[in-house]
Amino acid sequence: MNPRIIYMLLVLLLIALSGNSVSATQVREGYISLNVNNKNSMYERLTLLPKQHNAVITYTYPLHQQDLAFVSGLPDGEYQPVLQAKDGSTQSLPPFTVKHYPLWQAGGLFILGLAVFVALLVTLFNYQRSED
Amino acid sequence: MQAVQIDSTSALLILCAFGVAWLAWGWYLGRKNKTLDDFALAGRNVGFALATATAMATWITSNTTLVAPQLTLQFGVWGMLGYSMAALGLLLFAPLAERIRKLMPHGFTSGDFILARYGRAAWAVFIIISLCYALGWLVSLSMAGGLLLSALSDLSYLTGMTAILLICVGYTLMGGLRAVIATDFVQSIVIIIGVVVIAVVCINTVSFETLHTELSARQPELLNLLFPAAIMFFFNNVFFGIGEIFHSNVWWSRAFAFAPGIGRRSYFTAGLLWLPIPIVTGFVALAAVTLGVVPPSPDMVGPMVAAKLLGDIGAVFVFIVVFSALASSMDSLLAATSDLLTQDVFRKLLRPDSDDMSLLKASKVIIVLLGLATWLISLPKLATLGALLNFTGAFVASTIWPIVYGIFDRRLTGKWAALAMTLGTVSGLCGYFLVGFYVAAIVSCSVSLLVCRVGLARATTLFDWQQLQEAPRVLK
Amino acid sequence: MYLSELALTLIVVLALGITVCVPLYLLLQLCLDLKGKRLW
Fold first, then answer.
1. Subunits with at least 3 CB pairs below 8 A relative to chain A?
2. What is the pLDDT of residue B151?
3. What is the domain partition of chain B in residue ranges?
């Protein structure tokens, strides 16, 4: 593979990765570990309420005796986690925002990976053939 | 944590039964070991069945039983498929394994090759990378042992971690690579039967229809084929896996140990057989929320779902499967890393004039010291398993190109190989801290390729393959 | 673009099918090696 193409892909990657200043409660992968502090099994459910206007979908998860709860697979949006106790009382946790990477950044990295991988395959194949 | 399933007496009983059985077998297999070749390389004549099983079993580690479900929970379908792509490491190593044995018929370690091919500077960088990786993997395995035990039984993290280390150090010490390879065969059968049973029960309990509906409602991104972070992760995992296998002495020592003509076929077969396993182990994580399992940390999802699916007996079952998976990697890693330390640090740096017997003795002392070091580092539970392992992604991916060019191309010199590994690692670590663990390997591998290409373009001398025939030589 | 139920089913069932054959294949090869006296 031509080194110049790899160089260009690298520059593209650097541009893609720049400007990703992420605040403390911003989640870029759609997963987060929440401090539910449920060692005494007081709460039985964790609900994520999207803070967006006219949102109809809420995400609920069962809770057991545990300090942390790991939730994943969330789409973009602002979320307000709420703990629900057996007696019906609730407690709010600090809100967080999910903002996935733009698709072109992820795609750029994927293409870089594919290019380097194909280069590896071709290299190994050629050496192998010339050895035989 | 959810309800505890195995009481401490039963858990200790299982541990003791395992310990005694494997130690006895290690002793039985090791009683005929006379020379260093016997102990470190199983006599350099391992056949196809054992060769394939050991390559596969070693690659089924905490990676496949704990981290594959973890990554499926984090990255969904892409995480699962991306993990199974680690099989490419085994598949692509197949041609290398064959040529390594041909180029260096007397070689012991990957360090021997790097020193003879690239000289001291590259060798030093390579040894640092190798040891960081080996220790990182060892620690993550012993931590996984501790986590598993504390999740499935009344026993503490410390007890589990200590037990798995003691058992593995014990039988590796007694039987050498022969014991490692033979236990790997049994362990691979146990692991596969176990993961198949868990997967079948999972499909029976939660149908694909329910699974899909629940995921769409509660974790929609896990099914998204355009999930950005997961797309970034995909090739990262490919290069991580390739880097792990290409550089690590675990795989090189096997290349030296397999009988002539076996290497290529067995590594290729092992890769193909390994490919579907992370999908089988990983997909159960998709059923977690449906089953009411919300793990405290992502690395616990696999055992928790399995224990939930199979109930009390299941906990014992999961315990045995994951314990086997961890042991099958840990024994290999102990053996291979002790070879590396014996040959590359003890022999090359400290005692150049040692004979076979003193090297054999040194290699046994080093196994014990390695176990002790791992135990000390594992005492505080530092990071989640995946993050700890992926930290080393930046290191190992930088070695892929220097190794490929080193084995096949006479033009690349030691200076450029050292530079490629150093710059690759540094840039990979930058990626790790600036973006996330899922880009470290890809950045590292790309930068390393770039440096190697520049090195090849500027080459003025050609390496003489004959120099490898006499290696390993001793540093003067 | 989301993965359909059918695709998910196919991927998992295929992987499971291959995995089931792995121990059988390994044991068969072990028998062949034992018979041919080339275990190690």
1. B
2. 76
3. 8-385
pTM for the model stands at 0.89
Distance between CA atoms of residues B84 and B283, nearest Å: 11
**pLDDT value at residue A104:** 94
C38 shares contact with chain B (CB less than 8 Å): yes
What are the extents of the domains in chain A?
1-20+101-132, 24-100
Shortest Cα–Cα distance, A16 to chain B (Å): 11
Most B-contacting residue of A27, A33, A43, A70 (CB-CB within 10 A), to test interface? A70
CA distance B190 to chain A (A): 30
C24 touches chain B (CB under 8 A): no
Query: What pLDDT score does A19 carry?
Result: 45
d(CA B82, CA B74): 12
**Domain B8-385, CATH among 1.20.1730.10, 1.10.10.10, 3.40.50.1220, 1.10.569.10:** 1.20.1730.10
Of the partner residues C5, C11, C25, the one whose CB lies closest to the CB of residue B279 = C11
What chain A residue is nearest to B218 in terms of C-alpha separation? A59
- Which residues of chain B fall short of a pLDDT of 50? 1-2, 475-476
C18 touches chain B (CB under 8 A): yes
Q: What is the CATH number of domain A24-100?
A: 2.60.40.10
Residue of C nearest to B191 (CA): C23
The residue of chain B nearest to residue A114, with distances taken between CA atoms, is: B235
Comparing alpha-carbon positions, the chain A residue that sits nearest to B264 is: A128
**Average pLDDT score over residue span A116-131:** 93
pLDDT digits (tens, 9 = 90+) for B223-266: 999 999 999 999 999 999 999 999 999 999 999 999 998 999 99
Chain B neighbors of A67, CB-CB under 8 A? 296
C33 touches chain B (CB under 8 A): yes
- Chains C, A in contact, 3 or more Cβ pairs below 8 Å: no
Q: What is the pLDDT of residues A17-73, one digit of tens each?
A: 554 444 457 899 999 999 998 888 889 999 998 876 666 678 889 998 888 999 999
